[in-house]
Amino acid sequence: MKRIYMDYAATTPVDPRVFEAMKPYFSAKFGNTMALYSLGQEAKRTLEEAREKAADLMKAKSGKVIFTESATESNNLALKGIAFANKDKGKHIIVSSIEHRCVLESARWLAGQGFDVTYLPVDKYGLVNPNDVEKAIRKDTILVSVMHANNEIGTIEPIAEIGKICREKGVYFHTDAAQTFGKIPVDVNKMNVDLLTASSHKMYGPKGAGLLYVGPDVKIEPLLHGGGHEFGLRSSTVNVPAIVGFGAAVDIAKKEMNGEAKRLTKMRDRLIKNVLKIEDSHLNGHSIKRLPNNANFWFAFIEGESLVMRLDMQGVSASTGSACSSESLEPSHVLLAIGLKHEEAHGSLRLSLGKWNKVADVNYVVKILPSIIENLRKISPFKRRWK
Amino acid sequence: MKFGIYSKEVIRHFKSPKNMGKIKNPDGVGKVGNLVCGDVMWLYIKVKENKRMGKKILSDIKFQTFGCVAAIATSSMITSMAKGKTIEQALKITREDIARRLGGLPKIKLHCSVLATDALAEAVYDYLTKNKLKVPKSLFKTHERIANSLKTLEAGHKDYLKFEERVLAR
User: What CATH number should be reported for the domain holding residue A349?
Assistant: First the structure.
C-alpha cells in the first residue's frame, strides 16, 4: 500500500542533502568544539558556520543564536531564563492560551515558583488581539510570549504588532517560531522580538537540534551550568552532527522556502476546499492568516482517534486533537481556546503537508475521506442535524 | 501492519465491528458515556424466552458508539460475547473478560471496557424494569452507580449535555 505522510507539523523526514552533510561529523570529524587541536577547531568552525546561517535566515545582525537540543528546551530557556534573570524587575509573565505545551507548562511551573502568569485569550480563529497584550502588560511584567504560528490550527499571529507594543512598554518579547522558521519569512527585526525559538526537525533537519535567538542586551540566565558552551547560556558538549544538519537545512530553506510555500499553499487550499464539501465539516483556524502547509478540520458526530486510525489503515498519516488520543484524556487546549466544545474538538483532524507531498496525495485523501467519515457516522448513535 | 498501542484483535474489531447498528423495537436499551469524555455507547437488546430451559436469552444485540478505537472494539466484543447467552450469563461478563478477549487494552483505555459492561447492564436493567421483573441486587447497584456518575457529570457540564440532547432529539 502507498503511504502518504501528512503530519509534517509533527516532524519531518531529514532531507537527503542534510543527511549527506551530517555524515562526516559522526566519525571522521568527531572533535569536541572546545578542544584546541585542529580536529576540535574544525568542529568549532562548523558550529559557528551553522550559527551564522541560522542568524542570517532570521536576519539577526546582532544578538546571539544559542543552539539547544530542541524547541522545547529553547522555550524552557526563554521563559525560565528571562524570569530568573529579571525577577528583581517584576514577576509577571504573559503567554497566549494556545502556546505549545512546553511554553504553557514552563509558565505553570514558574507560577508555582512565585511568578504571576496571565493567559491571553484568542478569537475563534486563534488570533491574539494586540490590544489584549497592551491591556495585560503591567509595571511588573517582564516577558510576553506569543507563538509565531500555532502548531495545531496553523494560525499566524500578529507578531510584529505585539512586538511593537512590547518594545514601547520595555517588556521582553519571545516568539516560538518552531512551525515557521524555514517555512515562511522570519525576521527578528521586523517582528520586534527579543527572543525566538526554532526547531531543526520541523524543517527537514535532524531531531536533537533547536535554537534560541537572544537579542542584544537581553538579560537571561542559563538552565544548564557547566563548561560555558554557547556563550555560557547552554553548557553541554555540542551535538555537532545535529547542528551541522540544522545548518544544512537552513541553507536549503533559504533557497527553496518561498517556492515551496507557494506550492504548499495551493495544495492546502485544494485540500480545504474539497474536504469542506463533506457534510457537517468545519475548518479550524484562519482561512488566510494560516501556515502554507496546515489544514485542520472538525467533523460532527465522529471521534478523531478512530478517524486517524482509519486513515492509517488506508495509508495516510495524520493527527487529531481528540481527547481519546491524548495521555490526559483531555481534548486539545487550542481547540477549546478557539471556542470548540468538547465533542467538537473530539472530531478534529490535522493534515499538515510537506516537501514530499504531491497534488495526487491531496486528491487521494479527498477521495477516501468522505467514506471513512460516513462509515464512522454509521457506527455513531448521533444523527446529522439536518435529518 | 502495526497500529501502535492496540492489539491485532482490537484492530480487527475496529475494522469490521460486529453487531453494529440499531434494533427497531428493542426490549431494552442501555445508554452510557457522554460527549464530554468522548465516548458514548448505546446498546440494544432483544430478549427471548427459552421455554425448554426456562431461561431468558439475549436473542439479538446491537450497538451504536461514538468514540475511539477501543470504544468501538469493546462494543463489538461485548455484543459478540453476550449474543445468544442467558441474561444471567451475559451479566457475568466482566471488563477483564472483554479486555482479555481483545488481547489486552492500553491502560488508559480500560475505561472503555467498563463502558461496555455498563451499557449491557443498563440494557438489561431497562428490560427488567419495563417488564416489571425482579432486578438482581448487584444489577441495581450497578444502575445506581451509573446514574450517580451521570448526575455528577450533568452538574459540571450542563452546556455539553444540552448539545447532546439537541442531537439526540433528532
Answer: 3.90.1150.10
pLDDT in tens, A32-78: 999 999 999 999 999 999 999 999 999 999 999 999 999 999 999 99
Whether A341 sits inside 8 A of B64 (CB atoms) is no
Q: d(Cα A249, Cα A15) in Å, to the nearest integer?
A: 7
Q: What is the pLDDT of residue A385?
A: 47
Please indicate, yes or no, if residue A21 is contained in any of the structural domains.
Answer: yes
The pLDDT confidence band at residue A325, using thresholds 50, 70 and 90, is low
Residue A297 CB partners (closer than 8 Å, separation 6+): A275, A276, A281, A282, A283, A284, A348, A349, A351
Q: Confidence class of residue B170 from pLDDT cuts 50, 70 and 90?
A: very low
Closest CA to A76 of A105, A112, A39: A105
Nearest CA distance, B37 vs chain A (angstrom): 7
Give the total number of structural domains in chain A.
2
Same structural domain, A60 and A108 = yes
**What pLDDT sits at residue B113?**
87
Asked if the ipTM is above 0.85, the reply is no
What residues in chain B have their Cβ under 8 A from chain A's Cβ atoms? 1, 3, 6, 11, 14-15, 17, 20-21, 31, 35-42, 64-72, 108, 157, 159-160, 163-164, 167-168, 170
Distance of CA A214 to the CA centre of its chain: 18
CB pairs under 8 A between A and B: 89
The x, y and z cell numbers of residue B46, run together, are 432483544
Q: Tell me the average pLDDT across A122-150.
A: 98
- Interaxial angle between packed helices B69-82 and A304-313, expressed in degrees from 0 to 180 and rounded to the nearest 10: 90
Nearest 5°: the CA angle A81, A227, A45 is 100
The residue range of the domain holding A293 is 4-10+257-374
Alpha helices (runs of H) in A58-148, residue ranges in sequence order = 71-85, 101-112, 130-136
Report CA-CA distances (Å) from A21 to A17, A42, A48.
6, 15, 15
The CATH number of the structural domain formed by B8-168 is 3.90.1010.10
Q: Which of A2, A299, A303, A383 to mutate to test the interface with B (most CBs of B within 10 A)?
A: A303
| Cα–Cα distance for residue pair A329/A311, rounded to 1 Å | 21
Q: What is the DSSP string of A201-253?
A: TTTTS-SS-EEEEE-TT-----SS-SS-TGGGTS-S---HHHHHHHHHHHHHH
| Model confidence band, residue A386 (pLDDT cutoffs 50, 70, 90) | very low
- Residues of chain B positioned with their CB less than 8 A from the CB of A381: 31, 40-42, 64-66, 168
Examine the domain organization and report whether A235 and A171 are in the same domain. yes
Same domain, residue pair A301 and A178: no
> Are the Cβ atoms of A342 and B160 closer than 8 angstroms?
yes
B64: nearest CB among A342, A346, A381: A381
